[in-house]
Amino acid sequence: MRSEKVTFEGTDGPLAARLDLPVGKPLTYALFAHCFTCTKDIAAASRIAKTLTRLGIATLRFDFTGLGESDGEFANTNFTSNIADIIKAAEYLGQKYEAPTLLIGHSLGGAAVLAAAGDLPSVRAVATIGAPFDPAHAGQHFVDFHDAIRASEDGVEVDIGGRPFRVKKQFLDDIEAYAAGDRLKKMKKALLVMHAPLDDIVGINNATNIFVAARHPKSFISLDGADHLLRREADAAYAAEMIGRWATRFIPALAPVVPKSALAGDPTDTYTIEAGEGFLQYVETAGHHLYADEPFSVGGTNRGPSPYDLLIAGLGACTSMTVRMYANRKKWPLERVSVRLRHSKVHATDCAECETKEGKIDLIEREIELKGDLDDEQRARLMEIADRCPVHRTLHSEVKIETKLA
Question: For the domain 307-396, what is the CATH code?
Answer without folding.
Answer: 3.30.300.20
